[in-house]
């Protein structure tokens, strides 16, 4: 008994240490890497993301989805058919995520480098709270997926004599509801569940980490923006702009990865929910509704995290608007603040005009890495002696504007007609 108490105490100390120390994201990436390598079953140790790996895994999961589609259209009827449809939705999501990983491997690698680089920086209590939240949510996702996967596999073994699987499946060369065909189907679905659980732990942990990391950066920017006032100098504003662009870089890159996934996630979850409603109405083999419930929880998690990101961006704008930016004495500082508020408009303008080095987040994410860029040469803007004051729809600080002695405005060395503002 004493040994058990000592073991529990040591386990508690290790768990407390895990939750409160080493917030450099190394633990999270270690979990992601190990789970992904196990779930992909790469016997030839092919580099993940290569075209060979893509073909290999396309065949593996394509066969799986084909099996479920065949079950839906031909092999099963009634509740068995609906159960097979739930399985199709589950593995369609998995297949879609794997395709996205293969096609966006560079973006995944880039996010990894950015987050690991940020993890080595000194952080305050606000960012520490976000990193601790990331650690907790990753551990919670591991626990939830492990429990769900264990339940589904255990159900297969408990109900083997009753021919009731968690998700109905029939391999093309087996006969339904017969031995040993049922054992083959049971083993197949169990292996698929285990692999899928490890893959979901890997991918969703990565999703949680990059999302909360973006939220933490936007929260820091909001805190800095609220301090804008009369005493703010060039270094303070430049630091705010760099951190804001860095946060947008993380969020924009993450959104490019998640957009195709969210589309298929919405379609498959809707189908799974509809099939579950039919199953509950029939009252037969409703255990498949458990898998559908897991999909529903995952879908709402994705929606909630996306809403939090949108809210964080809105809170940043509110912090800038509610600050005392109007007390800034230098016009150049005011222009920088206005540039932050109109960054989306400047993004569209720069794309239309083909301006190099503008604040288009997509261009920014391709040309720069991390937050270690020098943005000072972007902030020259219009000289303070010039009567032209930057307002939305007028002079963009990204274009070389200048004034001559008589107050005429220029753009790229050419005089503007009728002394017009240097708009695009």
Can you tell me about this structure?
- The chain is mainly α.
- The protein folds into two domains: 23-322, no CATH class; 342-419, no CATH class.
- It is 69% helix and 2% strand.
- The chain has helices at 2-20, 26-40, 51-75, 79-103, 105-119, 125-158, 181-225, 234-282, 288-322, 331-341, 343-353, 361-367, and strands at 401-403, 409-411, 414-415.
- It has a three-stranded antiparallel sheet, with no helix packed on it.
- A hairpin with a 5-residue loop joins strand 1 and strand 2 (409-411).
- Helix 3 (51-75) runs antiparallel to helix 4.
- Mean pLDDT is 70; it is low at 344-424.
Mean pLDDT: 70
Number of DSSP helices? 12
Largest sheet features? 3 strands, antiparallel
Point out poorly predicted stretches: 344-424
Q: How would you classify the quaternary structure?
A: single chain
Helix/strand/pairing category: mainly alpha
Number of domain modules: 2
Estimate percent helicity.
55-70%
End-to-end gap:
78 Å
Gyration radius, rounded? 27 Å
The largest sheet has its strands arranged as: 1-2-3
Number of strands: 3
Order of helices and strands: HHHHHHHHHHHHEEE
Rough outline: elongated
């Amino acid at each position: 008994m004493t040994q058990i108490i000592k073991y529990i105490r040591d386990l508690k100390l290790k768990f407390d240490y895990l939750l409160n120390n080493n917030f450099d994201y190394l633990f999270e990436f270690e979990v992601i890497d190990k789970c992904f390598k196990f779930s992909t079953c790469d016997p030839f140790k092919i580099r993940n993301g290569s075209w060979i790996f893509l073909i290999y895994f396309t065949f593996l999961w394509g066969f799986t989805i084909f099996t479920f589609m065949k079950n839906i259209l031909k092999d099963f009827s009634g509740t068995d058919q609906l159960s097979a449809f739930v399985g199709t939705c589950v593995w369609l999501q998995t297949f879609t995520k794997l395709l996205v990983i293969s096609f966006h491997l560079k973006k995944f690698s880039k996010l990894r480098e950015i987050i690991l680089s940020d993890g080595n920086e000194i952080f305050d209590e606000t960012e520490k709270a976000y990193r601790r939240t990331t650690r907790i949510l990753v551990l919670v996702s591991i626990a939830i997926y492990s429990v769900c996967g264990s339940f589904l596999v255990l159900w297969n073994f408990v109900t083997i004599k009753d021919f009731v699987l968690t998700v109905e499946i029939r391999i093309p060369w087996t006969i339904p509801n017969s031995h040993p065909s049922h054992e083959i189907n049971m083993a197949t679905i169990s292996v698929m569940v285990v692999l899928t659980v490890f893959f979901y732990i890997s991918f969703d942990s990565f999703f949680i980490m990059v999302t909360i990391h973006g939220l933490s950066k936007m929260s820091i920017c909001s805190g800095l923006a609220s301090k804008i006032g009369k005493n703010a100098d060039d270094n303070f504003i430049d630091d705010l702009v760099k951190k804001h662009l860095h946060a947008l870089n993380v969020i924009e890159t993450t959104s490019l990865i998640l957009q195709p996934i969210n589309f298929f996630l919405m379609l498959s979850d809707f189908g799974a929910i509809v099939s579950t409603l039919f199953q509950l109405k029939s009252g037969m083999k409703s255990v498949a509704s458990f898998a559908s419930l897991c999909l529903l929880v995952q879908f709402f998690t994705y929606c909630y995290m996306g809403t939090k990101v949108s809210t964080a961006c809105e809170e940043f704008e509110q912090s800038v608007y509610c600050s005392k930016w109007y007390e800034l004495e230098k016009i150049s500082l005011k222009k920088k603040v206005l540039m932050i508020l109109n960054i989306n408009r400047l993004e569209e303008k720069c794309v239309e005009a083909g301006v190099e080095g503008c604040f288009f987040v997509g261009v920014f994410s391709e040309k720069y890495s991390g937050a270690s860029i020098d943005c000072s040469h972007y902030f020259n803007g219009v000289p303070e002696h010039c009567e032209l004051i930057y307002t939305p729809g007028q002079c963009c600080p990204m274009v070389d504007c200048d004034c001559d002695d008589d107050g005429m405005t220029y753009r790229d060395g050419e005089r503007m007609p009728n002394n017009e503002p240097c708009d695009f």
